[in-house]
Specification:
The complex is a heterodimer. Chain A is of the alpha+beta class. Helix content of chain A is 38%, strand content 26%. Chain A has a 5-stranded antiparallel beta sheet, with helices on one face. Chain A has a 4-stranded antiparallel beta sheet with strand order 11-12-10-13. The longest helix of chain A has 21 residues. Chain B is built from 13 helices and 11 strands. Chain B is an alpha+beta fold. The chains are: A alpha+beta, B alpha+beta.
C-alpha cells in the first residue's frame, strides 16, 4: 500500500483533535450519517469527507495493510473496519476540562464540587496542576441562585420530574406558586432562566433563576418537548408594541453598545452619543436603564415611555428637595 | 510525512505496543522524520511528543528494569477518557452549563469547550435526559447579535485564552470609556472574567503599572507575543484573585479613597434589591424603610445604581453625593419638562 501524499493544512491541530473524537464516535455509532458526524464536529460534510480521506493514510508502523485505520463511507454512512486502538477519545485536555468546569461553576448547584473533581480526574495525571491553574484564570460568573435550589432544579431536569416553585413576578411585585415541567436552563444577556411548561398557563415560559425563591421536586414525570417543538422555542416572546427610543450620551453609548443586547442604532452624533431603539422592553425597564447612566441618557419615546420616565425623575427629585 | 499524519501514526504505534518502544525502534519506523543520529531528530521528536501531550495523548518515557525494556509508551489507563461516574443531576449541570456557554459563542477556550462537550457523551454511561436538555439550552441561549460582531469577539477571546494559558504578553490598542482616547499598552493577561454578560481580561498593565481590567468589546486590536510560545513571559503576582476582582461591585472600583455611603429604600428591600448591593453591604431596618451602608471607592457608580432604583431610593450620605444626585435629577427634569 502506498501512502498518500497529503497537502499540509494550516489547521492540523484542530484536525487531529477532531479525528481523535470522530473515529471513536463512528466506532460507537456504526453507520452514522456523514451529515450527523459533521454536525457533531461543527464542520461541513466536505470537511468530514476530507478528514476520512486523510485517515486512509494513517496507521501504525510497520504499515502492513491491517495496520492502517479503515473508515469507509457507504451510502452516506460512515463505517469503521479497523480503529487501531482509537476506540475511545483521549482524556480531557486541561483547557477542555477547565472551560467546562468554569462554565459549571458559573451555573452552580450542589454538584459543582463533585463535577470539578470528576473533571480534574479525567485530565491525564501530570496535567492536573495545569488544569487547576487554568481554572483559576477563568471566572464565568456567580451562580444565579442558592446551590441547594439549583441542585433540586438540576435533579428535576435530569429525572424529568415536575417542579413546584415559588416565583417572584417583578412586574407585579408579588410571589406566587407554580408547577413547572422543567425542560432546560438557558442563559441570555447575563441572566439564567429555567425554561419549562407552566401547568396553570398551559405553555412553556422562561423563569429567571434569581427570582425562584423556593422549589420542590414533585413525583410526577413528564415528557420533554420534541425536536420540532424545540426548534420553535424562544426564551422571550416576540417583541410587541413599538420599540423604546433612548438618547445616550457619548460615555453611555460607548458603554451600552459594547454590551450584548438588541440595539438598533438610529443615529450617532459627532461626539459619540447615539439615539438607539430597543424592542420589546417595558416603560419601567427603559426608565431604570436610562437613569442608570446618571444623567447621561434619557427616554425619548414613544410618549407613554417618555411620560413614565419624566414622572420617575420628578418623583425621585422630590425626595431630594424635601431633605436638602 | 505530513505532521498531523506523523503524530497520529506515532500515537497509534505507542498505543498498540505491548511494551515501551525504544528510541531506536521509533527511528526505524519513521526513518524520514526522525532518522539520522543528530540532536535535530531528537528535538523534533520531543516537539511532537509535547504536541501529543497537548492533544491529550500522554506519551512518557520509562527507564528499563529487569521486566521491562526502556522506551516510550502511552499508558492506556492514562489515555482513554474514563467514565466520569456522575449522578444524573451532576451530569445535567455539566451539559446545561456547557451548552449555554457554547451558545454564547464568546466563552474562553470556546473551541476546547466544544471538544469537551463532544467527549462528554463518552464520559457518561447514560446521558439521556441531560443531553436532550442540553440541545434545548444550546438553542435557547443562542445569541442573536450580529454574526460579524460575534465572530470578532470570539476570535479575540480565543486569542486571549491562549495568551492566558501560555502566560504570553499581549499588546492592546484600547478605547477607554472615560477618556475616549485610544491608548496602546502591553498587558500580562492573568485571567478572563464575565460580568453582566460581557467579558473582561484582567492583568498587569505595564503602562499604568497596576492590575487593570479591560472590556473585550473596547479592545480595538490585539497582538499576542509570538516569540517562544512554550516559554512564559511573566508570573502572576502573588495574592492576585480573579474571583475577588470579578465580584467587585462597580462602586468598589478603585477611583478614590474609601467613603462610607448611606442609601435609604422605602419599605422592606426585596431580595433582588438586597442582592444588587452585594455581599459587603450592611442593612438596617428603620421606620417605613431600610438603610443600606456601603464603602465606595467609586461614588459615581453608586449614584447610578441608586438613580436606577427610581423614586424607591435616595442617597442620604455623604452630603456632596446627595447634592450631586439632586443636580442630576433636576437637570433631567428640565429636559423632560
Amino acid at each position: 500500500m502506498t501512502r498518500k501524499v497529503a497537502v499540509p493544512k494550516p489547521d492540523a491541530r484542530e484536525r487531529l483533535r477532531r479525528v481523535l473524537f470522530l473515529v471513536p464516535y463512528a466506532v460507537r455509532h456504526p453507520g452514522v450519517p456523514v451529515r450527523d458526524l459533521a454536525r457533531r464536529c461543527g464542520v461541513t460534510e466536505k470537511q468530514i469527507l476530507e478528514d476520512l480521506d486523510f485517515l486512509l493514510g494513517v496507521g501504525c508502523p510497520p504499515f502492513a495493510p491491517d495496520d492502517f485505520l479503515d473508515l469507509y463511507v457507504e451510502g452516506d454512512r460512515v463505517h469503521v473496519a479497523l480503529h487501531q486502538s482509537f476506540s475511545r477519545p483521549p482524556r480531557f485536555t486541561e483547557s477542555e476540562a477547565a472551560a467546562l468546569a468554569a462554565a459549571a461553576l458559573a451555573l452552580g448547584g450542589e454538584g459543582r464540587e463533585r463535577v470539578v473533581k470528576a473533571l480534574r480526574e479525567s485530565v491525564p495525571r501530570d496535567r492536573r496542576a495545569l488544569f487547576e491553574e487554568l481554572l483559576s484564570c477563568i471566572f464565568a460568573g456567580s451562580p444565579p441562585a442558592k446551590d441547594s435550589l439549583l441542585g433540586r432544579i438540576e435533579q428535576a431536569i435530569a429525572g424529568r420530574r415536575a417542579l413546584r416553585i415559588r416565583y417572584f413576578t417583578a412586574t407585579r411585585g408579588e410571589e406566587n406558586e407554580r408547577v413547572v415541567h422543567p425542560y432546560t436552563l438557558a442563559q441570555r444577556l447575563g441572566h439564567w432562566y429555567l425554561w419549562g411548561h407552566d401547568e396553570s398557563r398551559g405553555r412553556a415560559l422562561p423563569f429567571r433563576l434569581d427570582r425562584i425563591r423556593e422549589c420542590a421536586v414533585d413525583d410526577r414525570r413528564f415528557e420533554p418537548p420534541g425536536e420540532a417543538e424545540l426548534a420553535r422555542a424562544h426564551l422571550f416572546s416576540e417583541a410587541s408594541g413599538p420599540p423604546v427610543r433612548l438618547r445616550l450620551g457619548a460615555l453611555s453609548a460607548a458603554w451600552a453598545l459594547a454590551r450584548p443586547g438588541q440595539w438598533r442604532v438610529v443615529s450617532r452624533d459627532r461626539k459619540g452619543g447615539a439615539v438607539v431603539e430597543v424592542p420589546g422592553v417595558s416603560d419601567e425597564w427603559a426608565t431604570r436603564f436610562a437613569l442608570s447612566f446618571g444623567g447621561d441618557a434619557e427616554v425619548l419615546g414613544p410618549p407613554p415611555a417618555r411620560r413614565h420616565f419624566g414622572e420617575a425623575v420628578r418623583k425621585a427629585l422630590a425626595r431630594y428637595g424635601r431633605r436638602s | 510525512m505530513q505532521k498531523a499524519e506523523r503524530l497520529l501514526d506515532l500515537a497509534a504505534l505507542l498505543l498498540r505496543a505491548p511494551e515501551p518502544v525504544s528510541w531506536r525502534e521509533i527511528q526505524e519506523q519513521f526513518p524520514d522524520d526522525y532518522g539520522g543520529s543528530g540532536e535535530a531528530a531528537i528535538r523534533k521528536f520531543e516537539r511532537d511528543k509535547a504536541e501529543l501531550l497537548e492533544l491529550g495523548v500522554p506519551v512518557r518515557w520509562v527507564g528499563g528494569d529487569e521486566d521491562l525494556s526502556a522506551g516510550y509508551l502511552v499508558d492506556k489507563e492514562d489515555f482513554y477518557l474514563p467514565d466520569l461516574k456522575l449522578a444524573p443531576e451532576d451530569l445535567a449541570l455539566l451539559y446545561l452549563a456547557g451548552s449555554a456557554a457554547l451558545a454564547q459563542r464568546a466563552f474562553p477556550y470556546a473551541r476546547d469547550l466544544a471538544h469537551a462537550m463532544n467527549k462528554l457523551s463518552f464520559a457518561a454511561r447514560a446521558p439521556g435526559a441531560s443531553e436532550v436538555a442540553a440541545v434545548a439550552a444550546l438553542q435557547l441561549s443562542a445569541d442573536d447579535a450580529g454574526e460579524e460582531a460575534r465572530a470578532e469577539s470570539s476570535a479575540r477571546l480565543e486569542a486571549l485564552s491562549q495568551a492566558v494559558a501560555g502566560k504570553k504578553r499581549v499588546h492592546l490598542v484600547y478605547a477607554g470609556a472615560e477618556r475616549r482616547a485610544r491608548t496602546e499598552r502591553d498587558v500580562d493577561p492573568y485571567g478572563l472574567y464575565q460580568r453582566g454578560g460581557a467579558w473582561f481580561v484582567a492583568g498587569f498593565c505595564r503602562l499604568r503599572q497596576e492590575i487593570r481590567s479591560f472590556h473585550l468589546a473596547r479592545i480595538i486590536s490585539l497582538q499576542v507575543n509570538q516569540a517562544a510560545p512554550r516559554t512564559p513571559d511573566f508570573e502572576v503576582r502573588k495574592g492576585f484573585s480573579l474571583a475577588a476582582l470579578a465580584t467587585r461591585e462597580p462602586w468598589e472600583f478603585g477611583v478614590h479613597a474609601p467613603v462610607r455611603c448611606r442609601v435609604r429604600l422605602d419599605g422592606p428591600a426585596s431580595p433582588e434589591e438586597r442582592d444588587s448591593f452585594g455581599p459587603r453591604a450592611a442593612w438596617k431596618e428603620t421606620t417605613g424603610g431600610t438603610v443600606v451602608e456601603v464603602e465606595a471607592t467609586n461614588q459615581e457608580a453608586l449614584l447610578r445604581h441608586v438613580l436606577a432604583l427610581g423614586d424607591r431610593a435616595e442617597i442620604l450620605a455623604p452630603r456632596p453625593l446627595r447634592e450631586k444626585a439632586r443636580k442630576v435629577l433636576a437637570a433631567l427634569a428640565r429636559r423632560v419638562a
